[in-house]
Amino acid sequence: MSEVSNPPQDAVVEPTLALKSRSKVIAVTSGKGGVGKTFVSANLASALAKRGLRVLVLDADLGLANLDVVLNLYPKITLHDVFTGKSKLEDAIYKAPGGFSVLLAGSGMVEYSRLAPEVRDDFLRIMETLVPNYDIVLLDTGAGISDVVLFAVSMASEVLLVATPEPTALTDAYATIKVLGAQQKRQSIRVVINQVARTGDGTAITTQLQQVLDRFVNKDSEHPLKLIHMGDIPADPAVRQAIMKRQLLAQSDPGCAAALAITQLASKVESAVIKHGA
Amino acid sequence: MFPPRLFQLISYSVASATDSSVIRLSDLRLDDARALLEHDPSSELPSPEASPAVYMQTILDALCELSLRDPLTGLSNRRHFNHLLNREIESVARSGESVLLLIMDIDHFKKVNDTYGHHAGDLVLQAVSKCLEACVRPMDTVSRFGGEEFAAILPNCPSSFGPVVAERIREAVAALAITVSPSETIQVTISIGGAYAPEWVRSTIELWTERADEQLYRAKSAGRNRVFIEEQRGVAVSADEKGMLFGHLLFGDPASGGVAGDASSSAVADSEMNRAN
Questions:
Q1: How far is B97 from chain A, CA to nearest CA, in Å?
Q2: pLDDT band at residue B257 under the 50/70/90 scheme
Q3: Handedness of CA A191, A194, A197, A199 (dihedral sign)
Q4: What is the ipTM of this complex?
Q5: N or C: which end of chain B has fewer CB within 10 A?
Q6: A14 vs B48: which has the higher pLDDT
Q7: CB-based contact B253:B264 (threshold 8 Å)
């Protein structure tokens, strides 16, 4: 007599950012928390900045403890203060050590069962103001697939999904990929596998994810979803040391294996996203 | 149970009797509080002469207890429940833990009151409360939300367990034989709606209960004595899909050639050690 019911499916979020802005926005997301998403965002931003790009990381994650801890940066003003009229937008943008800019969403990002239109409008308006000042905007979304995450992702032309080889992380990554394909009709998702034990593990995992997608999702779909492997980041003791020191890899150990992997990732992101999109 | 600082403040004040800022028991109007507590058999007040501080503390503790419990059923009341719900919301937002909220409503309760009288209604509420508490783990909290409505928070409740627990509750309530008078035993049923906290997202009490309420409404509309639980997002991965996803962990990794069992499990260990985002 018990039944499991589906939540209302009215939560489909359509992209609403103007194309020109949208093309510069990359959503960095993960199915599960704790896979290094924020670490990747921050270090990728620093590597992109080093290539001469003007980069903004917009932390749309409510876990605002993350980005500031990774960067040893403690912004007092957040996007929430801008929304509520307490502060001006330019005062909420901070310079991070890696030569890029940071804007934290703050406690404004909570559950919206039906994301309030005025919050959406506020967010979009701010994005339209911000994006022209940068070459690339990394939107660090929360983990999971809440409406807030889906909305954040909908503002981006590209999705960079961070996962680790751990089974729960892979399951959640796969679930996220499915939802993004189904709800946002995305045709490609870029994948980076963090904390791999050996070179090549990440490629194998992306291949595996693609095979499962082909078998269970793509077979009935007119728009097959394609995963693009963007690289592996090796499990590297230097990463932990950098986090302990609250520094970017570029500051603490620029020559370590993980830092090199992130430099490569930045070059791929630049050629795939920026040159292609421009 | 409640603020130790308040206790310190009062015991300090009582101790330093020469201080002009001291609180004297004789200056306080404690009659209302005392009268309230006299009707509550669980609280027995010590003598005010022996130790004014202990006396005050006992009154405060007993009042806190009263303000958090539903007098009829002994369950947490809505105030206490909301406090706990807020705490869960904070914790889920950071941990991503799976937490289920159930809202339960006794079916056709008005009929019980109308047919057998309000005393019978009270007995039914008490019996159902006991039954609900017996159906859940000690770490779960059952609360009387008001009237014939109850709620339960189930922390650390994986999505596959939720329907099982709710169904167990439904069956247990339906199986109760409640004696309402020497000659009469009645049975009731309960409708249950449930919703999980959104993982990694800070929800609000209103939104979360609204989602559970929607499911309760569906259970009622579908004929009562039913369980409806909102499907948790992010778990739409079938066993077949999982099997294929982790095939490489068990049978070797075709993409890299070798037997990947050992290497992959070490990758898992590393990734857990390295977690730091």
A1: 11
A2: very low
A3: positive
A4: 0.75
A5: N
A6: B48
A7: yes
Q: What's chain A's length in residues?
A: 278
The amino acid present at B132, given as its one-letter code, is L
d(CA A26, CA A22): 8
Q: Cβ contacts of residue A136 below 8 Å, gap of 6+?
A: A24, A25, A26, A48, A53, A54, A55, A56, A269, A270, A273, A274
Look at strands A136-143 and A25-30 and give their pairing.
Answer: parallel
- Return residues 213-272 of A near B (CB < 8 Å): 215-216, 235, 239-240, 243
> Element (H or E) spanning A41, and its range?
helix A37-50
- The alpha carbon of residue A6 is apart from the nearest alpha carbon of chain B, in Å, by 5
Report the Cα–Cα distance between both ends of chain A, in Å, rounded. Answer: 56
Alpha-carbon span A32 to A175, nearest angstrom: 10
State whether B266 and A107 contact (CB < 8 Å): no
Give the C-alpha separation, A110 to A122, whole Å.
15
Contact yes or no for B117/B166 (Cβ under 8 A): no
Mean pLDDT of chain B: 81
Query: What pLDDT was estimated at residue A99?
Result: 92
For B142, the token pair is 């059952």
CA distance B41 to B272: 52
Predicted local confidence at residue A265, as pLDDT: 96
Q: What's at A219, amino acid-wise?
A: K
Phi, psi at A265, each rounded to 5°: -60, -40
| Cβ-nearest to A211 among B202, B237, B244 | B244
What pTM, to 2 d.p., does this model score?
A: 0.65
Contacts of B263 in chain A (CB under 8 A): 197-198, 201
Which tokens go with B117?
């009288």
Helical pair A201-216 and B261-273, crossing angle rounded to 10 deg: 100
